[in-house]
Amino acid sequence: MGGWLLSVSVVFISLFVFGCDAESRNRCSASRAVNCSVCLQAGPNCAYCPDEVFPYERCDLLKNLQSHGCLQMVSVQGSMSTLENVQIDTNRNYAQVAPQQMTMTLLPGEERELVMEVFEPGRGPLDLYILMDFSNSMSDDLDNLKKMGDQLAKLVGTLSDDYTIGFGKFVDKVIEPQTDMRPSKLAQPWPNSDPPFSFRHVIPLTNNIKTFREILQRERISGNLDAPEGGFDAILQAAVCQSQIGWRNDTTHLLVFSTESAFHYEADGVNVLAGVLDRNDEKCHLDTGGSYTHATLQDYPSVPTLVRTLMKHNIIPVFAVTNHSLSYYERLLEYFPIAELGVLTDDSSNILHIIENAFKSIRSKISIQTEDRPKAINSQVLSATGGGDLRIQPGEIANVTVRLSARTEYNDKHVCSLSPNDRSGLLRVKPTTFSSALRIQTNVLCATCECEKNPIERAPRCNGNGALVCGVCRCYNKWMGPFCNCSAQFQSDAECISPNKTEPCSGRGDCVCGTCICHNPSQYDGPFCQYDKSQCQRYGGFLCNDRGGCLLGKCVCDDEWTGNSCECPLSNMTCRDNKGGLCNGRGVCKCGRCECEHTGLALGSTCEPNFQAQLGMCESRRSCVQCQAWKTGERKGDKCRDCPFKVVMVDELKERDKVIETCEYRDEDDDCTYYYTVDYPPNPTEKEHEVQVLKKKDCPPGGFLWLIPLIMFLMLLLGLLLLCCWKYCACCKACLARLLALCCPCCAKGRMVGFKEDHYMLRQSLLTSDHLDTPMVRTGPPKSTDVVRWKVKDNVHRPANHPQNQIQPNPKEMIDFPVSLRLNRQFSDNLSRLDARDTQVLRQEVEDNLNDVFRRIPGAQTVQKTRFRTQRNAGKRQNNTIVDTVLPAPRGSYNDIVNLTDKQVQSGNFSNLRVMPGYYTVATDRDATGAVELQEGVESVDVRVPLFIKDEDDAKKELLVEAIDVPLGIAKIGKRFVNITVIKENAKSIFTFLQPSYTFSRQDAVANIPISREIIEDGRTQVTYSSRDLTAKDKKDYVSVDGDMAYGPGETQKLVQVKLLQLAETDSLLDKQLKQFVLDLSNPRQGAKLGRIPRTTINIADKPDPSAITFKNNKQSFFVGDPVYNIPVIRTQGQENQSTMNWRVRNSSQLNQTGQLKFAPGEVEKNITLNPLLAQGPIKPETFELELFDPSANNAIRDKTQVDIIDMRGGDISKKTDMSFQQSAPSGRLHCPANIEATPIGPKNIRLNWKPQMGAKGYKVKYWIYGDPEAEAQVVDVKNTQAELTNLYPYCDYEMRVCAYNSQGDGEYSDIVQCQTLEDVPSEPGRLAFNVIGPTVTQLSWAEPAEPNGVITEYEVVYTPINENNKPTGPSKKVKIDNPKKRMLLIENLQPSQTYFYKVRASNKVGWGPYRDATINLASQPHRPMSIPIIPDIPIVDAEAGEEYDSFLMYSNEVLRSPTTGTRPSVSDISEDQMINGKWDQKFMFPGGSSSLTRNISTSSTNYSVSPRPGGGNQSMETMTTYVSGKGGSAQHRQDMQFSGGLHTEDVILRKRSENRNYYDSDGIRDSIVMGDLTSGFSDLLNSRLPRGVPETPSRLVFSALGPTALKVSWQEPHCDTPVLGYRVLYQLLSGGEMKQMDVANPAQNSVVVQDLLPNQSYLFKVKAQSQEGWGPEREGVITIESTVDPKSPLSPVPGSSFTLSTPSAPGPLVFTALSPETLQLSWDKPRKPNGEILGYVVTCEQLHGGGDLRSFQVSGNAATSLTVSDLKENVPYKFKVQAQTTQGFGPEREGIITIESQDGGSMGQYSSQSLMRREVFNLPTQTSTHTSHNMFSEPFVTADGMMMSSRQVTQHMEVGGSVMRQMEMVQRGVTSTVTKRVEKQYYEA
């Protein structure tokens, strides 16, 4: 035992000695390997010593084991060898790399580098394959391509000396619904066209241009039905069919894909309907004729499949598409590592230009990529110098460095746990355009030890109680210890007690056989667990500088780091200066930092001049250089002796890169340019830089010098003449004035001031600013200064009894007060740039002084939005700087702000800020006051009058500007008033740019400038745009544009694309001026007007502005008791970038925290949060620094701020210089507490802290929800200076005030402090709804959680197959939907007749909320036909997919249809109404969105309606559509069904996909569903009962809403054996009335537009066709256009306009209480976010199904939230809408539907099936005899149209007598319905 203990002690002493070394971190020993194999797998250079006697650590670095005397060592090494290395031959005209093949074996964590040579010939071989869309709409494109054969050959000849050209064509799968399967259409879909096909390879790659042209001339167009084409099938076949296409090796492969349509992709929905279910096998399936044979046997390829296949075969796609489908391919382009995209003209006349540009662009983008890399290998490609800038110049050999490294871990597991296939593989390193590649066979070596395979059983060294394995004992059962000599039953703690300790293992471990086993080995180590791993030395707050680990109390550093706390890098890279030298040659590098020689120069961290000193290095020496070298300049003469340095005149200056600065300036005395350099002094002890001046100046040619005296003489003569004229005029004027004074004394009263004009008429659409410069003139002798005060009042045209004038504003409402002052400072161009340093310094000075003055205003906050400008017509002050800022303050403080501002301005000072007396402006949102100054000799100045432009302004409003008085001067006021009239024109559309200026980089190549269109009345319109030069020049900096931009119905925005040109090298060096040009809008047509920004300036920048990030304050202070410390960080410029940096705490003994800070694009402020709970022990007062470091690229940071932690207990307060007590008022009443800070500490808790108040016995805290009146506040009484508010609402804004009290009563309350509680997990989502599409397809939707408790970020859907006992029978599938707006999921390939259990939950920043669940079997539910093949904007998921399909496959709206506005569309009659800006309206089928058109689906007994979300945008229209199939086809195959509305309709059957041969696909029109029946598709139905030659029923009927009273009706041409002669459209009100008729004589026209319909009314439409044999049967359909906004109502917003953020949110849920059969009481909750003072509410009431008048009620005041409505009818459903009103306008509506049922009852089915109880309110009405019927429904409930709602069972009781009405209401996306109940004075729980 003693010998064993001695050995153990030696081991630990050795470890201790080793740990004290602290030179480098040993990954071998740090791995704590338990055996030999694990040691070898720890990393490179790790070895194991299997000697029986070895007193050191067995797993160590090989060199350490050798030094310790290990006799037999086990180690492995990686290897690298070259198998093939053929040198590059530049004479060969193809791409080459060297070496070509290698093998590499790496140990885990090992890294190796190799150098690869790359050669790209200047004109290498090229294979160009053109793949063209042959749908009918591309016919003119094909004609143009046929004409371009010679031009194409010529173009390719300029690109390559060795080229081939091939051609292929594609349309789509010849199957429904992609293709019209009628025999006539299959033979010839269009006149003079070929039959439809999927893909056909026509011309193999050839260099015979004549053959190419001849074959191409014989090609004819084809056609299909739907707009997306099957191009993906064609691309994949063209890639995998290498021999058929003719791709060559060692060539550049280009595939030009030309189309004007979108694309089908795998599982996009169409193929599911068509019966195509098998996945694409990625194999070649071309027959001998080049046709694709498997088009109808397998699906389209997916996008990842396409990308992977093209990369594998080195094919680069070039997408040449039209503007119609550009957006789809822009998104597709992002998935390819290298690809190009070009915009085709409508006839493809520019396709050659696209090919040429694409080829040049691809050549310029050559990059190196690593393909087929195993999971265990990392790769990095660098330039030969090790940087990241890779440039491969064609025609030259380039060297690149390839760095390969083996991972140590993968997914938190050791890399050796991966499968062999993941650890090894053949990777390829290749340029993106090459076929040649460097192939490297890589393998991660996971070695094992042979000694482990041959253990020595019962070894003597193990005392016969264990086996000796690799020198270590492996003990048998019941034995332990290093030598198995300790029985498990033997325990002794004596050997585990260290000296001077009494506890075994220092109280941190257990003693086992005399050895300490530490409780937490990651925290404690040492032979007695005496070392704490968290107590090693720290640097910058980080343990071992985060560059090493703590072992036995000492830092063990990583490689390349050293020092006691690992603070010193071994590398000197941090000491490298910009020239690559060490410390600029003026210092030494110690511990990674330069210690510079002591000089008086301001040097940076690398002993180079710091940035600030270098900026002014030329300018600061300019005057001294002039006076010493040339005796000129401002210092010439005696001042020159004061220069601190002496210049050196030289004949030749040093080169620019060998000096600090090279300077050049123009000498004003002789107009010559002189040059000098600034460099370090030759003697390091000198404190001044060396300045060398070139002796020779550059002067202009001398031939023009003789003109200078002549010009000066002529200017002198002209001046004398002007002086004489002025004297003469002045004399005449003085004489006239004396004459008037003698003859008419009344005319000599002095000067007059007044406005120049009486009236201004302005058109709002033409305004370019929010103010008007109104001239004020002065008459009489201007020999002194006059100051005139003025004021302006808005809306003076409104009479006193106008409703808006009756509204009294809340004086406590916080509003913005714009304030303008003129500074006693000249303006400079730098002040116009927000990011300039001068601007930032002056802004800080202005804001500090203004805040110091305005804090006297109660409730005033700090000023913000400070800007600087000049005023043009300001007399002698026009060059002075004017500051515009905004002061948030209570509305009632307006007069105080004006008086205070006037007083400060007249004194000439704002605190310490010097201002010019006589000028200021103070404004609100309705009036303004100011002053202007007319200096001596000035006769006119401008008054800057704000116009108060607001959306709620009247169509014609007037402002009155009045000159009040002249406080300074002798002038009298003449023309006192001026009227300003602003006219709002009722334009149909308004065009405007979104911003007054844009900035683009030349690297962007194209500037995309959006032109926005605000739609007031939808329709077609256009506007003209044109560019104009400023400092940017056409054809040099950009390519000018001009033209007309046409907008179709619904289109709101389009882009103007301006090509930006790269500067020549000479231009980039010489011309540093900012390049700008302007883009103007003009000539709006078809009732359009120009908006607020008709002109925008485009700035061309060389690179984007960097982000400037800094701490908001230089110093922060917090109390010891604060729960968290939030330090704000702001970004002052470059806010469009994404910025990342790290932060850490320095010089703190308690808070050693670090983290990362990220700014997303658009974010300007973030907080760094320090958590005191993570501190080491209790928080104590201290001062430390918080530092920003390691910013991402293109970011600049200010790195430090000081943080003070203050103790506020007892006497410590008096010791803090920055804390002071406020004295109580003389009367004894206490002042309000100061420095109130509110901090959220949880979702339901807010903590307040404030400074103590002398004499206070306690404090009262009032708090209330923001928007509620203060009178409803709750009060908390506390005795100290801290209060915690509990039981609050999560993520809710609260307002608080604090007062102190003593024996004399309460003191003054503080100003309002606002704070928002933290987020909490959301509640469960709203009720689940199922739209049963088929027996295996369902559409699941849900509502937003009733309590989001934050911002919902994503949803999770889980569905599981279960049995009748609710037990799972299969695995659960999870789908995450990361867009919270997409609350709908289409699930395909469910098991037929299988019950599924569905769960949905929501997540916000805090986490996941509870599930909402439902159980359903689709087979037992009625279903509707899947009429639209792809449902827009709905995630689609495959229930049969593998586990890797844990998210949806693709959004169906990403690729749906392309607009078909060509002359010959591929699909028949698709309206532009389907599109918004060339895309599908993504809000269609998505209730609750903010689109202009939304969708309702209803039958006559149920509805699915839309209500606006609170706070969302205004919806101008929603369409309710009832779908009824027609009477075509065989009657014996239909089942009769009676709708409750009385209409007899037929059942529509969704057949199996394999049998689907009818026209169930929609043409995609929004707000439409296509209805089909069984008129064709089965052999037994082909035998029609109709006479031969009579047309059948039109096969589909589509409705498109064009407005509240207009409708477009479309249909499909019916089958007929004889030509169709025309159509007839019949329509009438569903409730009866006159049948109207429209005849269509043109058989090619298959749509009509019906006008003058009644809104909110249902119409029955019938369409039939006629031939020579007579009329065919009718196709019927029912449609209702429901308008949600009454255009005649003055209380509703303008249709299509969005609610601004300043309007209130929607009121709370509506609650109805029946008072009698004709009267009810409506009540609601106040808006959660009123965004201002609530002025009242507007309530509208109308019958749900039409009939009766729309009734409106005005409810005034903030407190009133109820209304009694009478004169209602029993058993009639009513729709109520409530809107809140503030001074900013009306907010969105809250809707509710209610029916007062009589004793006869009435079915609840119409409304109760879609209700969700959000809030239950019971009221006890007066005694009535109203009675309701019994109703019961249980989960799930299925409506007649297949919409199924899950709910818990709800039972209604019927009683006579006194009644209580219980109403359940939900306002959610798309479903708004109510249930009315009356029960016997009892409360029933649902």
Describe this structure in words.
It is built from 23 helices and 117 strands. It has about 1900 residues and is mainly β. A hairpin with a 4-residue loop joins strand 113 and strand 114 (about 1845).
In terms of structural class, how would the helical and strand content be classed?
A: mainly beta
Any idea what the shape is?
A: globular
Number of helices: 23
Tell me what portion of residues adopts beta-strand conformation: 25-35%
Instruction: Give the terminus-to-terminus CA distance.
Output: 77 Å
Largest sheet: 10 strands, mixed
How do the helices and strands line up, and which of them pair or pack?
Layout: H1 2-21, H2 27-30, H3 36-40, E1 46-48, E2 59-61, H4 62-67, E3 74-75, E4 79-84, E5 96-98, E6 101-106, E7 111-119, E8 126-133, H5 139-147, H6 149-159, E9 163-170, H7 183-187, E10 199-206, H8 209-217, H9 231-240, H10 242-245, E11 252-259, H11 270-274, H12 303-312, E12 315-322, H13 326-333, E13 340-344, H14 351-364, E14 368-371, E15 377-383, E16 397-406, E17 409-410, E18 413-414, H15 420-423, E19 424-431, E20 438-444, E21 466-469, E22 472-475, E23 479-480, E24 486-487, E25 509-512, E26 515-518, E27 524-525, E28 531-532, E29 538-539, E30 542-543, E31 548-551, E32 554-557, E33 561-562, E34 568-569, E35 587-590, E36 593-596, H16 611-615, H17 619-630, E37 647-650, E38 661-667, E39 672-679, E40 690-694, H18 707-743, E41 752-755, E42 759-763, E43 771-779, E44 786-793, H19 803-806, E45 814-826, H20 837-854, E46 864-869, E47 880-890, H21 894-907, E48 909-910, E49 913-923, E50 927-934, E51 940-946, E52 956-968, E53 972-973, E54 977-983, E55 989-993, E56 997-1001, E57 1006-1015, E58 1021-1029, E59 1042-1047, ...
Helix pairs in contact: 9-12
